[in-house]
Amino acid sequence: DFWSEMQADVMCFIVEFHRNGKLSRGLNSTVISESQIAFVKDRQILDGILIANEVVDETRKTKKELMLFKVDFEKAYDSVD
Question: Is the pTM of this model over 0.85?
Fold first, then answer.
């Protein structure tokens, strides 16, 4: 299954990120898209949710496999020292 193929790479990425506290420059260009949704002039905050919903719907219709994850940044900023 998909997770068994990706698990080692994903876990290594997470451990490396927590160890260094940042993404490598080469990885940033593949993970952080130039067409990001947040903090872009003339884009609405719900645009990303609507696009994600369309992707999920299309994936279900075509019966393709899809892996999504959501990062809850709000919890990271619940407390500030």
Answer: no
Distances (CA, A) of 41 to 2, 28, 36, 37, 44: 36, 21, 11, 9, 9
How far apart are the C-alpha atoms of 42 and 40, rounded to whole Å? 6
pLDDT digits (tens, 9 = 90+) for 48-79: 788 889 999 999 999 999 888 877 666 656 65
Phi-psi region of 39 (alpha: psi -120 to 50; beta: other; left: phi over 0): left
Number of neighbours of residue 13 by Cβ within 10 angstroms: 14
Phi, psi of 67, deg, nearest 5: -125, 120
Using CA atoms, how far residue 29 sits from 5, 23, 34, 40, 76, in Å, is: 23, 10, 8, 17, 23
